[in-house]
Amino acid sequence: MEIIVFSLLSKRAKSIAKQIHWDLLDIRLKWSCYNQIRLKIPSDPKREWIIEHHKRKEASEYPYVESKKYSGYSYHYLFFHKNQNAVEELEQIFETIWEVFRSPICDFPVVEKSVINWLIEFQPTIRCAWICDNVLTASETLESIFKSLKVTQYFRLKTVEADIQTKITEPIPYRSISIGSSYLVTLPAILNGNNSIILLDGSELTPMDINTILKEWQKGTKLRNLEFLEIKSSALQEGFDGCVREISKDLNLTESDENDGRPRKVKIHDEWEYWLPNVNISYNLVRSDGMIGSIFPTYRLHEDGRITDIRFNLQNISTRKPRKHQLLTEVKAEEESKTKNGFPLLNLPRVVLLECIENLEVLEIVQLSLLSKRAKSAAKLNRWDLMGIQLILKADHRIYLKIPSYPMGLWNIEYRTKKTSECPYKMLYAEAFHYFYSIEELKQMIEHLYEVFRSPTCDFRIVEQSMVEWLIKFQPTIRYIRFLDGVITSFETLNRICESLKGTEYFYLGSVRTYEKTEVTEPIPYRAIAIDNSYWLTLPAILNGTNSIILLDGSELTPKDINTILKEWQMGCKLRNLEYLEIKSSKLQDLQSYTNEVLKDLNVTTVVGNDGRAMTIKVTDDFIHRLPQVQIVHNLIRNDGMIGSIFPSKRKNELLFNFQVWRRET
Amino acid sequence: MSSTEQGTSSAAPAEPTTAPESAAAPEVPESFYYVHGKDKVVHKVSAGALQHSALIHGMISNLGYTEEQAKANPFPFENIDGDILQMVVDWCNQHKGKPTPPEDTNLPKQKEKLFDLVLAVNYLEIKELLTYCCKQVAMMVKGKSPEEIREIWMIPTDAEDEAAEKEAKKRAGKEAAGETAAAAGDAK
Fold it and tell me: Where is the composition biased (Low complexity) (chain B) (predicted)?
């Protein structure tokens, strides 16, 4: 108060007062309905400073200061003498205070028409403004207010002079509006507006109009920002039930009780939360984006039992208020509180950030990397690639991150809705971030992980043919690849794969789903191959290949073909890399005659039991193939000393031919 | 613990309340140095404790200050809050001449304090303490959901980052325009 009095003394006094940084106190300046200027500091809500004019004392005794206490609140008054120019004087004081404290007016009630222009000129942007009863006498003034005054939170128009009849057809451009004489507000003004809160008293909107509002809201093209709408209307009193029927016509409403989680109050502006009427039942309307509009019409009865007005409320609910609905001040407040309670990781110097990232587990890095582009860049500082982390895509779309040399090094990114305690792996559940609804998203996730961990996928189960082209482009060199049953539907695709994918150590191909009667004569160019339903793979494809391990199921190679393979192997020009060949054939044949045909003209020695060969074959790091236990083995010796052990067997309806190449240890 | 006292850099600090010096080496009197943070509170710290900080150790190794000179020339760390510098000094004193344990549970639990501590420790190049701090930072998100991680580590969304970038560019543009106008005014 002393500062205000001092600043009013002279221009120089004002300049001195201005040098103090009062703006740091965040003083809130209000003009009250009683032509008072009120100052408040949000951090000290129990104190208020009030500047007022009155005539209780002799003119010479003004201005004077007085303090009062009431219910723990302190009010400090600065009284000026009320004369004819009191409002003008107050405007001047206001301007001085505004200049000294560098604090804009928060709330401004227009009690006289004359101050509207002053306000528009002095401070065209204001948090809350309301026009008091009967201040407006002409509709042009209202239009000029809408055009020139920017209200950031709440605008209230109380009643206007009865001679204003021009309807408001254009939207009212403020976030929260409360209109007393709302017979002026038409349906287009509501529908085309961006208002979040609409309170209409004395409305002349019909039940049909309200029905239109609801339909438009549900469509989602209009009233996107609407949070709460209340219409009080005496025009609706022609039977409450009839009104409700008309309002809800052709709408798919669901009944909801009072415990549906709907908030019981609505924030009209920073300092006013509006309590909603208590109702036992409301009706919910759901928009395609998941927003719920809760409708609860109520009515008020006159003493004589007559319905005086009907209140219609539409409350828009979401679990989290969309950010776009938030005012800048709210966002700022939220940010400020966040700064107080959080740790701004991304603001750390890079070298420190690196050390923090190094302390994170694999799945924490994945979670961080998915939060934003900047977070992903930070997550990429991880050094798990030095540990040899590998990416594995399973057939059921699970992604494993694995470190072979690290006993606990297996992490699973899985898509489930519920956690289970049985799983032995550390998991990142889909509910923790998101589901993969499509193969596209799965591809994106793999690319993402590849980028974050700088680790190629080493083991890939392809479950859709559409992934082939993506894989060829994304990672044409892959260690282990499996095409599951029916994924490949043409030999053209198979050809493309064999031409484009390089460096593969293990290639599994399930049944090719095609009616083509093709015979493949070109070798499959990979170290280890396992092919189901391999009827199409011919003898030249085997003989001319450089494969080390060949596992064929459903083969149509004849005993004679196998005899050729053995002879070629013994000659030493072909199949130089062969370590193990297994051919399963479902063609019914007697084992003895089959063996005879296979061994025809070959100089083999027969051995009983195991004469030193290994009983397992390592196909991949995870796939160790166990060989069948047999009593008799036929050994074929190549001139370089390599032994080829032949041991055909019969299992159910299948004939199994096994050929294992090994060298006796000296 | 070090002693602290309110005042300017020329004020003579009080003796430490505890004497962490080893009893085995009494012959060579230990030298002390003085540091202060933003709050100008001067902390008296032994050269042994300051060895944890590569920055300060580098600064003092060739100074050869006498006690009086050291008192008269405290090292100013105006970018470090007083309470944070106090934490750092305490840590250095507690771990003077001792092998650092694998864990340190005495780090601040409040996230904003830890952030300031990390920055200070990084600036002062106290490697072991920085390692503890970084472990603590990583521990914050153990078992947390992505949204919780976002909140704890204040990770803005891409949209928020873009908006902030736009705003920064706008501000930089305005400042540049202001500078150009001022330069033009000066030239006139």
Answer: 8-25, 178-188
